[in-house]
Amino acid sequence: xxxxxxxxxxxxxxxxEYEIEIRIxxxxxxxxxxxxxxxxxxxxxxxxxxxxxxxxxxxxxxxLRGRIKQEGGKSLQTNPQGALGEWILKDILGLKGRxxxxxxxxxxxxxxxxxxxxxxxxxxxxxxxxxxxxEKFKLDNRENIIRAGLKGIQRPYFRPxxxxxxxxxxxx
Length: 172
Known about the structure:
alpha+beta, 6 strands
């Protein structure tokens, strides 16, 4: 995360400039189990670097070493940790220094999320997604989410205006 707390409690030393993590919503691991080749709810599989390392292929063909981290598989990171952040913050968003990502910037660029396409358990393509793509992805999977019985924080928030628009489009 950009501008987040120091890694060491009580320290004022900032995190490395491009160190970020990409959050993965819990519902994704429930609806797409083992999407990344591991059970994201198994701490041992998350810690097993041999099992958990995979290639993230950027649109320009570069390859980053990716892995799922943190409890419940809630984070996508790269090794080195700053590689993904450098691609997103510098190459895609064009930010220099420690500039903050704003919704205004993302709106102007027409992007608001990342899209990951699975080739196999060890190879994935990653790219930016147009504004609204993640919301549409949630809506496209709404029935699966309901069938899975996800509750509370496991269930994604559905923006009512988008649900209504989605339902109206599907009635036509």
